[in-house]
Design goal:
By secondary structure, the chain is of the alpha/beta class. The protein has seven helices and four strands; from the N terminus they run H-H-H-E-H-E-E-H-E-H-H. Helix content is about 40%, strand content about 10%.
């Protein structure tokens, strides 16, 4: 993973802020520890991070409609707690950027079981060539009807396209993502 202040996370935050969204970022303890130790050991199992995510939401003490989500692992963890929070009235929806549908080069190890029955409205913004789930792969998955997917042409896991191939820039895709999130939240009747 990458830290919360990585170039891609900062660019995504800027794109959402430009559409009027207030964005709060945090990083899991394992990622924060990497900053001081320099150790790049693998992250813990995603489900063990659920309490950290819930604690970050509680600390935020948000007033008004709240959309939770994240990039890659952050989105995966958010998706695991989304229904519980949605049913309690604590969130209005889920936004995932570059969802890790499976580990790279291991498409048989799906991380989608909980997404089949997801009730919380969700928007997943995914690059068509994301190594964690391409458009071709994801099109065959059984996913909840509550999930919308925005496909960004030639985008990678950071939604970044190869400009010489696609004709799009990373800024183009982030602007498209921001517009899509704005439209999606309008449909949620917040």
């Amino acid at each position: 993973g990458a830290p919360m202040d990585s170039a891609s996370m900062t660019a995504a935050t800027d794109a959402l802020s430009a559409k009027g969204f207030r964005v709060a970022r945090f990083e899991f303890g394992y990622m924060a520890a990497r900053r001081t130790s320099g150790d790049r050991k693998p992250p813990p199992r995603a489900e063990t991070l659920n309490p950290e995510y819930k604690a970050a939401i509680a600390e935020l003490n948000a007033k008004g409609p709240l959309i939770i989500g994240g990039k890659s692992m952050g989105g995966r963890v958010a998706s695991m707690i989304a229904d519980e929070l949605y049913e309690e009235g604590g969130i209005a929806g889920l936004l995932c950027l570059g969802y890790p549908f499976h580990p790279p080069e291991k498409p048989e190890q799906l991380r989608t079981q909980h997404l089949k029955g997801l009730k919380a409205p969700a928007l997943i913004c995914q690059g068509t060539r994301d190594e964690f789930g391409t458009r071709e792969e994801v099109s065959g998955y059984a996913l909840s009807q509550a999930i919308e997917i925005l496909w960004l042409e030639d985008g990678d896991h950071d939604l970044k396209p190869r400009k010489t191939i696609s004709g799009f820039s990373a800024a183009d895709h982030l602007a498209t993502m921001g517009e899509a999130v704005l439209g999606w939240t309008a449909r949620l009747n917040l």
